[in-house]
Design a protein that fits this description.
This protein is of the alpha/beta class and 149 residues long. It contains five helices and five strands. It has a five-stranded mixed beta sheet with strand order 2-1-3-4-5. The longest helix has 17 residues. The two termini are 28 Å apart.
């Protein structure tokens, strides 16, 4: 999670919402890929940290299936990212802060609980949640103070 938090900080410094993700192979401990939010800079509404990390891991491994890997992300994934996690067949999802408004794992649609979800990771939430939440709140407080939406 510390690597994901570092990626989130880098996103914030680039003016992006501070969300970071890392994909790890639990068998070897190898960090397969790291992603940070970049929809603004990439001009891509799908460039969430999870998607960036999934794309990088798939390219690195030469496989769209990331079976058995762990995705660690600083914020509860949205519905789009939950769908990508399912399609990639990520084995385990670890997230930091819950997202009551946009989350889709323990909030909102609870994507992995739906009967149409074909691949469900093991989910663990709340890991370093305070650090993740504090970073997000500080970022949005600063944006509001600067008059940016």
């Amino acid at each position: 999670m510390r690597i994901a938090l570092d990626a989130a900080q880098a996103a914030a410094e680039a003016g992006e919402t501070p969300v970071g993700a890392v994909i790890v192979d639990p068998a070897s401990g190898e960090v397969v890929a790291v992603g940070a939010n970049q929809p603004i800079g990439a001009h891509d509404p799908t460039a969430h940290a999870e998607i960036v990390a999934i794309r990088a891991a798939a390219a690195k491994l030469g496989n769209y299936r990331l079976t058995g890997l762990t995705l660690v992300v600083t914020l509860e994934p949205c519905a789009m990212c939950a769908g990508a996690i399912s399609h990639a067949r990520i084995g385990r999802l670890v997230f930091g802060a819950e997202d009551e408004k946009g989350g889709a794992v323990v909030n909102g649609p609870r994507f992995f609980e739906q009967p149409t979800c074909h691949s469900r990771p093991v989910v663990e939430g709340g890991v370093l949640a305070k650090e993740s939440s504090t970073m997000l709140k500080a970022f949005f407080r600063m944006r509001r103070a600067s008059g940016r939406p």
